[in-house]
Design a protein that fits this description.
Layout: E1 2-11, E2 14-25, E3 30-34, H1 39-42, H2 44-54, E4 63-69, H3 81-91, E5 117-118, E6 122-124, E7 127-128, E8 134-135, H4 140-149, E9 154-158, H5 162-165, E10 176-180, H6 183-190, H7 203-208, H8 224-236, E11 240-244, H9 250-256, H10 266-279, E12 301-302, H11 310-314, E13 315-316, E14 321-322, H12 324-327, E15 332-336, H13 343-346, H14 350-355, E16 357-362, E17 365-370, E18 374-379, H15 398-405, H16 410-414, E19 418-422, H17 427-430, H18 439-456, H19 472-478, H20 483-496, H21 500-516, H22 524-532, H23 536-541
Amino acid sequence: MTARVYSAGTSGADGFIVTVECAVDMRMSHFDIVGLPDAPVREARERVRAAAACLGFPLDDCSVTVNLAPADVRKYGSAYDLAMVMGLLAAFGRIKCAAAAGGGSADTYGGLGSFPVELGGMCFLGELSLSGDVRGIRGVLPMALAARDAGFSEIFVPAANAAEASAASAYDDSVKIYGVSSVTEIVDHLNGKAALIPVRFDRERFESALYDYPLDFADVRGQQHVKHALEVAAAGGHNVLLIGAPGSGKSMMAKRLPSIMPPLTFEESLETTRLYSVAGVPHGDGGTQSADEQLISRRPFRSPHHSVSSAGLCGGGKYVEPGEISLAHNGILFLDELPEFRRDVTEVLRQPLEDGSITIIRASGKYTFQSSFMLVCAMNPCRCGYRGHPSGRCTCSDRDVAAYVSKISGPLLDRIDIQLEVPSVSFSELRDGSACESSADIRARVIAAREFAAERMAGEKEPAFSNARLSPAQVRKYCVMTDDAEKLLQGAFERLGLSARGHDRILRVARTAADLSRSELIEAQHVAEAVQLRTLEKNYFG
């Protein structure tokens, strides 16, 4: 008795289809799984054996062989359990639906080939309990998307993952996503006893959560020039370094930065949720939303502790998973107390900051994760934290300060567009009862600047996501200056000793400042603003 069913796996943040072939022989008793399974996949035979017994067809006197194809790709995780037991059920004749009949074509996943029984057009994802219940799994969204793209019309997933998987059917009514709690529910559905109701993606619910931020810039007193600098950063996607004494509001403002950024698009939300799904991180982790939501609807804010390893930051592990920089994709990576991070850890940021992705190479293969994020860093001006503070409490010598800030490499600083000093807030500013500008008001200007930039780049085959991502060719094309602006930039370049990268980054910030004022040309005031937002590199690190 043989049967063929379909499941899916993940490689990096992408899904791929796995064909599960089951062969049953009544002559002896053993259970083999082949096709490069790892330990959790091999252990599935015990879960499947126990679940099969609970479902009424014990495998004690059967020889079972399960092949996971393609056989040259390593399979890991517990997502194949459900497909294995469904294949065995089909082989034993427990599935009576039309899809379980023989014959047909083997050219597509929906067709039936040389196997006597094949559940065509269906994909099964889920982990089994010993009683036949279906438990949640990692990576269900990229698996469901792979199944949809491969032409499957019915995708069965654990009930715990159904809301997330429903995004695969958001624009395709021909794809049905079923959330199931037990194998019995699937069998009854296929045999016509009790129909399952497909889970649909609730687009209205998704869109209503796009502007739902718990933190607001209206809570921040004073710091008007810092707020404006963060507005420029949000409008252009620029990296930021904030330097100031403890309690000046660096972390407070950084945590509110997502609330003034443009809302996630559906495509960006899919990209981000795929990474969280593969990493097994609940959607509510990192200030996004509750774990039962369909997709991440707010821009991620990741703030790893300074003890994080390079693998924790960039990704890795035995089974390669996304790191913090990938979980911050389309959002913000916040490094508080930047000098306290190990230098070998911060240096891994250099390539992802330029490319917007990171590739991890292991013996098992090459894995690429998206990591297009805004880097926001905060640090004290010295080890004690009070250099330049009105209280005069600083006890650090110039040599101590130099040793403290030297922990940050020049190449990393060169990739940070906006470097800003955050002064301490005065008593009168703290006690001022007047209303502060809300995040919604700032966000409206940021969105208008982004739209102005998008109109300018409408003819591009590959338009930049933001001004910070402009290629060198696009910088030359779109960062056109007036004569006065040209002279001002030349003076700043020579006075500050800028690198070629620093020159382009000042131009990108100036382009954003011009977009906020809806100016096609970069004027002298825009260059002056961009230079002013970068002078700390010379003052502190020169």
